[in-house]
Amino acid sequence: ERELLRLTDEQSAIFARLAANPRVIASGGAGTGKTLIAVEEARRLALEGNRVLYTCFSRNLASQVAMALADVPLVTVKTLHSLMAELVSRAGRYSELPDVDENDLLSLFLPELALEVILESADGAPFDVGLVDEGQDLLREPYLDVVEALVGGDLGKGRWRWFWDPNQNLFGGITPVCLERLRRSGAVEWPLTVNCRNTAPIATQVALLSGVPLVQ
Q1: Which of 21, 33, 42, 75 keeps 20 to 30 A from 212, CA to CA?
Q2: pTM of the model
């Protein structure tokens, strides 16, 4: 367990680069330490006095990260959908959401209303920095609009880190135009290539059994 948790040289390097850059796109496959880096980066930024948002797609992941960061009050840990629902409910506008298919509600109508609530708030952007984990599941225009508003209203000027796995698109969340929008913001791109979870023989065996091409 100690060996699995030990940061690789690559992960240490991304920490240094994250500290020096306001916007970072970190990509890597499963087991390359994206969530570990995101959690420690959230902790570091909060200790500097920033209001930090850690958001992701999965409720299970959000629950695990919330426990890991329970001792850091300046970090808010929520799935993007639960955060949007909370913002809309707090504004007393949840009844405005239409009675439609759940997928349409979560991917279109909820983000649109949440964006209105954020932009109409007199308090300004609620967070100084945003960290998006499982970013491959949230690369859609409505979600990106909400994240942009949460960190100041301009992706090119705000502070954020986007962690994503280009090999996983389980929920069809990747929209190429959104990825290009992130890249146009002047973000530094940093690939994570050291797998801390699976050895090469394990990865090769799984690829052979599953028929999924082995990603080098």
Answers
A1: 33
A2: 0.86
